[in-house]
Amino acid sequence: MSPSFPELPDQVPHRNSSAFTRTMFKQIFLVQGWRFVGEFPNLPKAVAIISPHTSNIDAWHGFTALLGLGIQITIFGKNSLFHTPLKPLLEWIGVIPVNRTHAQGLTQDIIAIINSKEKIWVGMAPEGTRKHAESIRSGFYRIAHGAQVPIVMFSFDYTQKTIHCLGVFHPTGHFEQDLEKILDFYVGKFSAKNPKWLAKPLQKRLKNS
């Protein structure tokens, strides 16, 4: 594995992309001074989370990394985004439009999609917003636990210009207790683009770093 960019393991869902496309996005990611650190887990199914999310630029770094890796991440985006000029790009990346007004029904729909696939990684930002959040939303956890798949944790570290793969967590069904353990993986391995918008639970970990 390269110290700055990993090779994608065989069991992880791959995008139908050319070697040229992967190389191009890998170089775009690296030429900005960014790197990828951590062992990439070889899992066919997972809920992948990445924090902190405090800026639209997070998506740029995240997408260039995943397109460079050649991984197929299933992302569920607000259907309103598909009424903007971003629609062709979102469709190419693989974003699926959803109506988020019925959160419980959406959770069950995503669980059903996961259960119907042999390989699928669902990507989510636990804060649910790039602005300051008082708490971490439980949607990612309920989806992972309901579908009986592990959570793979990633972090943005703007100070070090690094995306960290922090490891794998298997949910037990006890959200509050498990969330504390999940957030502990982030200590010392994250920093936000806009620190003032950092979610409150991550602010606590930042002070403990």
Describe the structure.
The protein has a 7-stranded mixed β-sheet, sandwiched between helices. It has one domain. The model has no long low-confidence stretch (mean pLDDT 89). The protein is α/β, with parallel strands linked by helices and 209 residues long.
User: Which regions contain 5 or more consecutive residues with pLDDT less than 50?
Assistant: none
Structural class: alpha/beta
What number is the mean pLDDT?
A: 89
By DSSP, the count of extended strands is 7
Helix content: 25-40%
Q: Termini, distance in Å?
A: 27 Å
User: From N to C, what is the helix and strand string?
Assistant: HEEHEHEHEHEEHH
Instruction: Count up the helices.
Output: 7
Tell me the strand percentage band.
15-25%
Strand order of the largest sheet: 1-7-6-2-5-3-4
> Number of folding domains?
1
Shape assignment: globular
C-alpha Rg (nearest Å): 16 Å
Largest sheet: 7 strands, mixed
Which characteristics define this entry?
209 residues; 36% helix
Strand and helix map with partners:
Elements: H1 19-31, E1 35-37, E2 45-51, H2 57-69, E3 73-78, H3 87-93, E4 95-98, H4 103-116, E5 120-124, H5 139-147, E6 151-157, E7 162-169, H6 175-184, H7 200-208
Parallel strand pairs: 1-7, 2-5, 2-6, 3-4, 3-5
Antiparallel strand pairs: 6-7
Helix pairs in contact: 1-2, 4-5
